[in-house]
Each structure stands twice: as C-alpha cells, then as structure tokens.
C-alpha cells in the first residue's frame, strides 16, 4: 500500500512508538490520535495543532466507544488503524507489590480495547478503497518471559486474534498486519533490559513493513527469535524465560 494521502488513526500516539510513527506519518497523511489525557497529549496538541485528537481511557469500554463515535462522526473513512496503545505491569504473582486490580486493566488496554475499536471502526474501514489494520505486538506474543505474565498473555491473544481476523477479512478491502517488536527504548521499558532499539528506527521499520506485502513485520531481534522458535522451540523458551 502507498502510505501517503491516507487517514491514519494511531492509538497511544502521544508518546513512545505511537509518537514516533505519528512524527513520520503526519507530513503526508491526515492523522488522528486516540490517547489518554496526559501531559504528553497536551504537548502533542500544541506541536501538531492540525491533528484530530480523541481522548480515551483504553481500560474503559465507554470511553473507547466515545472516541470511536467521534471518528465515525467526522465522516472521514479510516484508511489505516494502528493499534499501538499498551501497558505492561512487571510484578510477578508472588511479589508483594503485585496488584490484583491491574489484571483486568492490562487485559482491557492490551486486548479488549483493540477488539472493540476494530469492531466499532469496521464500517469506516470498509468504506475506504483499500484499508489496513496494524496491530502492534511483541516478541512476547510468540514466546513468553517469566515476568509480566498478563502482558505476555494479552500479546499471545492478540497474535491469535489477528490471525483469525485476517481469515475473516480475506475477501474484503482490509489487510490485517502485525508488528512483532523486541525491547524498544520507551518510557514503558525504563530500567528494564539493555540493547534497546531506538523509537525512530522502529518506526521506520514499521512504516516500511506497512508499505510492503508482508503481513507479519518482525523487527530487530524478533527475526532471530522466529528462526530459533521454528528450529529449536525449547531453546527459544529457555532464552525468553530469563529475558
């Protein structure tokens, strides 16, 4: 697909990978952002006053519905929906700082809201000549690590959901793509891991993948993980267990 002159909706576009994508896409496209209220979102409004911004708490179904309704009422068909918003809580179930209430929140933000938003914007996506859904996933959706069990589960669910949705939409104008990321240098990953990929490089690879015929876009070390998982699944499990 030619990624130019499109109406692109990015969730979580006020920071991290979402912001990196927005910065690269906004010059040649009409970009709308769905994000939670924050200082970052306020800065985004000032930096890019031409953007259409819809506030939403992705853990709140009604909030997601209001944002989707605003987009539908704008009467601009959505050409590309990039589901990027996510949260990751790192405490393990046996840790003293694990919080029961974060279980549902993490599932709602990382998975339920994506399913809901795709459904709510489906009529708009079908109006476009050719459209695309891009679900930002993680290598942890392929092979889990020890910590962040709920996060890993939501990414695994997103992987299976995306594959099934791809089958459902095979005879429509909508392509369903997934982006599988390694550790990226964002606010969410502060204090965790080393050798993180910079946001700018990741955003470039994602956009290149969107413009190609590739359905699963593997970024950085995920390319190697895919090979290891295929040839030696137990080794992939061992590697990721301590990631």
TrEMBL record:
Keywords carried by this UniProt record: Oxidoreductase
Source organism, top-level taxon: Bacteria
GO molecular function: oxidoreductase activity
Keyword Oxidoreductase in record: yes
Gene3D superfamilies: NAD(P)-binding Rossmann-like Domain
Annotated InterPro entries: NAD(P)-bd_dom_sf, Sc_DH/Rdtase_CS, SDR_fam
UniProt GO cellular component terms: membrane
Family recorded in the similarity comment: Belongs to the short-chain dehydrogenases/reductases (SDR) family.
Protein name in UniProt: Short chain dehydrogenase / reductase
């Amino acid at each position: 697909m030619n990624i130019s002159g499109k109406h692109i909706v990015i969730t979580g576009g006020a920071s991290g990978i979402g912001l990196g994508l927005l910065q690269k896409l906004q010059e040649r496209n009409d970009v709308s952002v769905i994000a939670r209220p924050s200082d970052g979102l306020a800065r985004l409004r000032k930096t890019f006053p031409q953007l259409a911004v819809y506030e939403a708490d992705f853990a709140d179904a009604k909030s997601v519905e209001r944002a989707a309704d605003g987009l539908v009422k704008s009467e601009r068909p959505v050409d590309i929906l990039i589901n990027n918003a996510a949260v990751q809580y790192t405490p393990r179930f046996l840790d003293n700082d694990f919080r029961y209430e974060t279980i549902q929140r993490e599932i709602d933000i990382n998975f339920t809201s994506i399913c809901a938003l795709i459904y709510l914007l489906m009529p708009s996506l079908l109006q476009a000549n050719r459209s695309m859904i891009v679900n930002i996933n993680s290598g942890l959706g392929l092979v889990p690590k020890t910590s962040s069990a709920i996060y890993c589960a939501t990414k695994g669910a997103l992987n299976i959901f995306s594959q099934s949705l791809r089958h459902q939409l095979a005879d429509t104008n909508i392509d369903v793509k997934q982006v599988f990321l390694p550790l990226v240098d964002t606010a969410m990953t502060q204090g965790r891991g080393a050798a993180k990929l910079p946001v700018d490089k990741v955003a470039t690879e994602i956009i290149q993948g969107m413009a190609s015929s590739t359905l699963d876009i593997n970024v950085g070390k995920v390319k190697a993980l895919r090979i290891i998982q295929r040839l030696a699944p137990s080794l992939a499990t061992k590697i990721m267990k301590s990631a």
